[in-house]
Amino acid sequence: MKLRIGHLYPDLLNLYGDRGNIQCMKKRCEWRGIEAEVQEFQLDDPVDFSTLDIVLLGGGSDREQMLVCEKLRGIKKSFRDYVEDGGSVIAVCGGYQLLGHYYDTDDGRIEGLSLVDLYTEQGSPRLISNIVIKNDKLELPIVGFENHGGRTYIGDNRPLGKVLYGYGNNEKDKAEGVLYKNVIGTYLHGPLLPKNPHVCDLLLSNALERKYGVSELALLDDSQELEANRYIVDRFVSGAENRKH
Fold first, then answer.
1. Model confidence pTM above 0.85
2. Known catalytic residue: 189?
């Protein structure tokens, strides 16, 4: 089996260590005997989504998002067709904002791709925090770091998780990220996937199910990753609860 991972515009959208997410996906494939090919796309490269199984859209500054947005408008239809056909996407921070209809900033509106029914507005102050969220369909919490000025509103879409510690999409609704078909949008970075192998495996299993009709993955020794996950949850969630009493 083979998965092709497309990394969109890493020269512009790699603000939060997004290459670490690529490395994590690639290694967890290789450890299972699954071939993983990574293709990086620069701004002037044509993107054929029909050849891709997973797409990473990383984070960047507002200026870089505007540059990328102009390019993405040209491939908006093919990107949407890929998403609606069940293609897997992981979009982080600025990439997450680009999934929606728009991001209103002090310097003007950044038009999004409208791949998911959501929008973002700039707010103050920046939301900076360690963060822990819980998705009821995943056994373990999801941990990470957030640093964003945007407040994202996802309407009736499912969030990636409920905020146990931190701010999340907009600091009001206690939700973080979005899940739409096989798309994951999130403000969690640092990078996200090495800290959360269960989220990485969700992306991989969705891609394998779409391509081969097989979603079951061989178990790996994640003892170190799980220990790190537990440490963060204990420190920020359990610690915060203890401080209340």
1. yes
2. yes
Q: Give percent above pLDDT 70 in the chain.
A: 95
Query: Looking at 93, 101, 200, 245, which residue is catalytic?
Result: 93
93 belongs to the catalytic site: yes
Q: What are the boundaries of each domain within the chain? A: 2-244
Of 7, 24, 189, 200, which one is the catalytic site residue? 189
* Confidence bin at 244 (pLDDT 50/70/90): low
In whole angstroms, what is the distance from residue 98 CA to residue 72 CA?
9
Render 186-240 in DSSP notation, one character per residue: ES-BSSSGGG-HHHHHHHHHHHHHHHHS---------HHHHHHHHHHHIIIIIHH
pLDDT score for 10: 87
CB 86 within 8 A of CB 182: yes
CATH number for the domain running over 2-244? 3.40.50.880
